[in-house]
C-alpha cells in the first residue's frame, strides 16, 4: 500500500497507520463494500477508537471508495481511493 493510492486526503487520513488499516480492510472486503454500498470499521488510534465509514456505489464518486473518519459524531478525516486498486 502506498499513500499515493489515496486522494483528497484530509484530517486524520494523513496518518499512515489509519490508511494502512483502511487499506487492509479493503484488500479483504472491497467486493462486499462495493456490493453493499457502505461498511464501517473501528480503528484504535492513541488509545481511542475512531470509525471509518467506507462508501461505494451511489454514495461515493464513480469508480472510487469514499472514506469518512468519524469521532464523537464529528467527521475528522476524509479520503478516496479507486476501486481499481482493490478489484
Report on the structure:
With 87 residues, the protein is of the alpha+beta class. The protein is built from one helix and five strands. The chain has a five-stranded antiparallel β-sheet with strand order 1-5-4-3-2. The longest helix is centred in the N-terminal third of the chain and has 21 residues, at 16-36. The chain is globular.
SSE arrangement:
Layout: E1 6-11, H1 16-36, E2 38-45, E3 48-55, E4 64-71, E5 74-82
Antiparallel strand pairs: 1-5, 2-3, 3-4, 4-5
- The helicity comes to 10-25%
Radius of gyration: 12 Å
Mean residue pLDDT: 90
Low-pLDDT segments: none
- Order of strands, widest sheet: 1-5-4-3-2
Distance between the termini: 14 Å
Estimated structural class: alpha+beta
Sheet with the most strands, sense and barrel status: 5 strands, antiparallel
In short:
With 87 residues, the protein is α+β, with helices and mostly antiparallel strands.
Quickly list its features.
globular, 5 strands, alpha+beta, 87 residues
Amino acid at each position: 500500500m502506498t499513500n499515493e493510492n489515496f486522494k483528497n486526503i484530509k484530517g486524520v487520513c494523513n496518518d499512515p497507520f489509519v490508511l494502512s488499516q483502511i487499506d487492509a480492510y479493503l484488500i479483504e472486503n472491497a467486493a462486499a463494500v462495493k456490493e453493499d454500498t457502505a461498511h464501517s470499521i473501528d480503528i484504535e488510534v492513541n488509545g481511542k477508537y475512531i470509525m471509518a465509514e467506507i462508501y461505494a456505489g451511489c454514495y461515493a464518486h464513480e469508480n472510487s471508495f469514499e472514506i469518512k473518519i468519524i469521532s464523537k459524531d464529528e467527521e475528522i478525516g476524509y479520503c478516496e481511493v479507486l476501486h481499481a486498486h482493490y478489484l
